[in-house]
Design brief:
Layout (H helix, E strand, L loop, with lengths): L1 E8 L5 H4 L9 H6 L7 E6 L3 E8 L5 H12 L10 E4 L1 H12 L10 H16 L4 H20 L9 H13 L6 E5 L3 H12 L4 E5 L3 H11 L2 E2 L5 H5 L4 E4 L10 H9 L6 E5 L16 E4 L1 H7 L4 H56 L5 H27 L4 H11 L5
């Protein structure tokens, strides 16, 4: 079984390309179900910073084949200028473990990615594209993430997206007391950012979503006030900070909406933090006078403030990743050779039993105790003879070793 990953992230593609490949939570299961049925196990991680397709296939896939699979899941043509990274085998395993540990995150050490890794495999299970190998891989990744956060200080130095939202808002507006924050959508990152702003002492918190009941639920959670989505354009004029994090496929707030709001607000500056991918705010809104628009790539630039502190922890996390990669690869190798070991032992047992029966039939004078001693000796002899080849196979037997064992002992291919 071969593991591969193909995708793009904030490290390899700008937000305008990433948003073309973003899957909403509701879209992941149908996307997985569009993949060829005989492809093997498949899972998709899709966040505001990355979209990645993980595959467990009988034969290794090259970059072109894996990209075609991701395109099949997306259901559209690949735009020009998109370059996917692609890893196979242990490097693919290592990449997922780095993702889960927070080393590959825009904000190094953030913890939200662990939930996103868990949700990715849950979606694969719901889509019927999971497998025993993928289950082991993703459970191992979750263990790596937990170890990274409990055994190192990677999270202690990680500046969260919510903290960045507060920092950028303060940089523009200064004191946030008596300011009004508008939350658009119910995305987890948006809620966290709004919660951090509320804790910083903002005066009022407004919440709007396309689903009124959900807006009321989020408002209760954040101790805010729900606003009908139809009134979005009007409340834009009241807000000092807008946090937008929806799963809409296209922009829901236009530059014209922003310009209209700015015309009604007596030259008060407006901070907009657009965490969504695809983006919720038309990029040209940043050209409106008085508007300070930050998208997910702008947050990446701001996250460099504590980079050195986080870099000191990356080495410790990499040690954990290396340990867990070896552990997983050992399991995968063992899983690959298990059928051969079982067949070898079965062949040896059949031979032992046949020879033992033939010998005991000629030694009718032996007592029951002596017969048991002869049988115990035959078992011990077989166990000792098989010890070296079984150990070699378990410690990383190659295809050459497997073929040799099958040929030498005339094992059945099935």
């Amino acid at each position: 079984m071969h593991i591969s990953v193909t995708g793009l992230s904030h490290k390899t593609a700008p937000v305008e390309l990433r948003e073309l490949f973003a899957f909403s939570a509701d879209a992941v299961v149908p996307a997985l179900q569009r993949l060829p049925k005989d492809l093997g196990g498949a899972a998709i991680i899709s966040t505001c910073n990355r979209t990645e397709l993980y595959l467990a296939t009988e034969e290794p896939l090259d970059r072109e084949a894996a990209a075609a699979a991701l395109n099949a899941a997306r259901g559209g043509e690949v735009p020009e200028g998109v370059e996917f990274y692609h890893y196979n085998g242990a490097e693919a395993v290592r990449h997922l473990f780095r993702v889960a540990s927070g080393v590959e995150s825009l904000v190094v050490g953030e913890s939200e990615i662990l939930g996103q890794v868990r949700e990715a495999f849950s979606a694969a299970t719901a889509a019927g594209s999971g497998s025993a190998v993928l289950a082991r891989l993703f459970h191992s990744a979750l263990r790596v993430g937990r170890r990274a956060r409990s055994e190192t200080e990677i999270s202690a130095h990680g500046l969260s997206v919510s903290a960045l939202a507060v920092s950028l808002s303060r940089k523009v507006l200064g004191d946030l007391r008596r300011k009004t924050v508008l939350v658009v959508g119910a995305g987890e990152a948006g809620k966290r950012s709004a919660g951090a702003l509320a804790q910083s002492g903002v005066g009022r918190l407004l919440v709007t979503t396309r689903r009124p009941g959900l807006a009321e639920e989020v408002a209760r959670e954040l101790n805010g006030v729900p606003v009908p989505f139809e009134q979005l354009a009007a409340v834009l004029a009241e807000a000092d900070v807008v946090i937008s994090s929806t799963a809409a496929p296209d922009a829901i707030i236009s530059a014209a909406d922003i310009a209209g709001a700015m015309a009604a607000r007596a030259e008060r500056p407006l901070v907009i933090v657009d965490i969504a991918v695809p983006r919720d705010i038309e990029p040209s809104a940043r050209d409106v006078a008085g508007v300070h628009l930050f998208d997910i790539d702008d947050l990446q630039a701001a996250a460099g403030a504590n980079l050195e502190a986080r870099k000191r922890e990356v080495g410790a996390v990499e040690t954990i990743v290396d340990d867990e990669v070896r552990r997983f690869q050992g399991w995968l190798s063992g899983r690959r050779v298990t059928p051969t070991i079982a067949a070898l032992r079965q062949r040896a047992e059949l031979t032992r039993r046949a020879e033992l029966d033939r010998t005991l039939a000629r030694l009718g004078h032996l007592s029951d105790d002596d017969r048991q001693r002869v049988e115990a000796m035959s078992k011990a002899l077989v166990k000792r003879l098989l010890h070296a080849p079984v150990t070699r196979l378990r410690q990383g037997g190659s295809e050459r070793h497997l073929d040799a064992v099958h040929d030498l002992f005339e094992l059945d291919d099935d």
